[in-house]
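TL;DR need structure tokens for one chain.
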Amino acid sequence: MVEEIMKKYGYFNFFRDSPINDNIGRITFVSKENYLVMTPKGELIGKLKGRYSYEIEDAKEFPYVGDWVSIQYTGNEKEVLIDHLFRRKNRISRKMRGKQFSEQIIACNVDYIIFCMSTDENFSLRLLEKYLYAFSCPNSKSLLVLTKKDLAENVEKNIKKIKELYPNLEVIATSIYEDSSIKLLLPYLLEGTTSVIIGSSGVGKSTLINHIAGKEIFKTREISKKTQRGKHTTTFRKLIYLGEGLGCIIDTPGLSSVSLWSSYNSNSAFSDIEELSLHCKFRNCTHTVEKGCAVLKGVKDGIISEDRYKNFIKLKREENFMKSKIDFNINKKRNKEIEEREKMKKSKKRK
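>> reply
TL;DR here they are.
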């Protein structure tokens, strides 16, 4: 029983041949104060142990949905204490919304990143580029799911456009009214694997998960007739088990915007442009004004579309800006620590 629970939540996929440890659990939900942790004894409330919490120096060192942690059982059979975070194989992040320059972790330790987009008039290649640029990460595979194909007439046309840019990207068009199309997703949701589903509000993420699981796990809402935009059905991140023979999936709130944090694998979004850039005259070419720029020549010759080029430059600038702000904050924190150490030294000398 114990082994079955942890196997379903990806224990052996993460720890490989290590035997089940009763003091290891997986984070399934995060609130401001507590966690939900799937343990060999079931899903329990988790709290950070005082010493562990005190030693955390950076926000990314806190546990997030999908993380594996070591736990201690307490006198309360419904609670555990979290005292260690196991090293992640990957994490998906974006910049926190607003003016604050900090990382917002969306999901950790995933095998598949499922980008969900509807096939109606809101479909956008530029948005797909941004998804791939912002969220592709190491040790994971990307999958694009086009929903609501029963409501669109241009599904095959959109798939053709996508395949021209991303021949290696798996694309699946689905409709909740066609069970055969939903079943095409099952090979990517095998037992022991963990997927995260990402997309805008109203594209059908929660509806898709409900149909895969064969029951209503997440509530769904209709598209706004006034704005033709989705309403936020999912307002939190939750890792759930999909059912017998299937893996786990992390549902996420609909994205109203995509703010870059770090592009781990940005080349996968613009591999054609990156390949052309190898032929630029200058190694540090910005691909904007330089003579001998192979990318600008590609745009002029029609090899790269103007819109795709503009999106590439926009994302590169956004990424460079974020890197400069991150470096600034790191240096600011380091200088503050040095100042504090110097103050302590002076204080000791006076004594």
